[in-house]
């Protein structure tokens, strides 16, 4: 039996586009995640007031998210106007109800212009997962974080 995403808070499927500049210096605003396939695009939400204005779109490879199947994420991070893109991005997943994360550590590669590729993820059991995306803030500040809640059955 195939297991897949059945519900999620802050989960937006095809056709959900959020307008944002791909970089602080971009002359024209594009929809965040526009380069990603619309049919599998998901949007993460700010996890703290410091991350307000930041947007992140991702497309799982393969889609949809499934229990026990290795996956990669194609990611587009969109900063608010005037903010620079981070040089690095960390990706992780954990299950709040169980207080544990994945059995694997994802690797993230910056591809330029706010695009990243995360590989090595595996959501090994059904239930509520939080995919977290974190990057350094200004010196002395808490890192910025966006979260995507998903429920796998």
What key phrases describe this protein's structure?
mainly beta, 10-stranded antiparallel sheet, 12 strands, 153 residues, 0% helix, disordered N terminus, two-stranded antiparallel sheet
Describe this structure as you would to a colleague.
The chain is mostly beta strands. It has strands at residues 5-7, 18-20, 30-32, 42-46, 55-61, 71-78, 90-95, 100-101, 107-112, 115-121, 127-135, 144-152. The strands form two sheets. Strands 1, 4, 5, 6, 7, 8, 9, 10, 11 and 12 form a ten-stranded antiparallel β-sheet that branches. A two-stranded antiparallel sheet has the order 2-3. Residues 1-29 have low confidence and may be disordered.
Topology:
Layout: E1 5-7, E2 18-20, E3 30-32, E4 42-46, E5 55-61, E6 71-78, E7 90-95, E8 100-101, E9 107-112, E10 115-121, E11 127-135, E12 144-152
């Amino acid at each position: 039996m195939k297991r897949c995403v059945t519900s999620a808070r802050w989960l937006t499927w095809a056709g959900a586009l959020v307008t944002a500049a791909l970089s602080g210096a971009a002359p024209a605003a594009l929809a965040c995640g526009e380069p990603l396939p619309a049919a599998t695009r998901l949007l993460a939400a700010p996890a703290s007031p410091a991350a307000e204005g930041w947007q992140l779109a991702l497309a799982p490879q393969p889609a949809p998210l499934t229990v026990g199947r290795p996956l990669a994420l194609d990611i587009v991070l969109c900063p608010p106007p005037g903010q620079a893109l981070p040089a690095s991005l960390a990706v992780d997943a954990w299950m709040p109800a169980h207080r544990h994360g994945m059995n694997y550590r994802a690797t993230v590669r910056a591809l330029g212009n706010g695009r990243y590729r995360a590989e090595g993820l595996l959501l090994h059991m059904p239930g509520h997962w939080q995919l977290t995306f974190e990057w350094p803030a200004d010196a002395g500040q808490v890192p910025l974080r966006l979260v995507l809640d998903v429920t796998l059955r």
